[in-house]
Design goal:
- The protein has one domain (4-132).
- The protein is mainly alpha-helical.
- It has helices at 4-18, 26-38, 43-52, 62-77, 84-96, 101-110, 121-132.
- Helix 1 packs antiparallel against helix 2 (26-38), helix 1 crosses helix 3 (43-52) and helix 6 runs antiparallel to helix 7.
Amino acid sequence: MYTKEEKLSLLSEMIDFARADKRFKDQEYNFILAVASQLKITKEEVDQLVKKGAEKKQLQPESQRILQFHRLVLLMNVDQETSQKEIHEIKNIGLHMGLRPEAVDAVLEKMHQYPNKVVPPNELVAIFTRFYN
């Protein structure tokens, strides 16, 4: 379970990532709102994050970091446009999260095999499990 500060940090990270290509599209904003709703964060709080951001919190345990990475992959693909800058940025985020580079690369490669580049959660878990055993 996330603390309020962790939830705000997660969403702030997603907002920053959505802006990596210098554009913050409606599809990205709406996706972030959907995640916020699941986390019980209001639209007003999200709008504040868009303006000011939040203090970054490192997630524990690793399963939470993998889930956040998956959210970022989904966010990256929500507009059906993936740039090299976004790929580079998401790899850096994965490394800063402490995720195995091989697992991050495998997820980014595997996403092209699925409709809308959505890697199913069970496949995501299988990839990370393979690289951590």
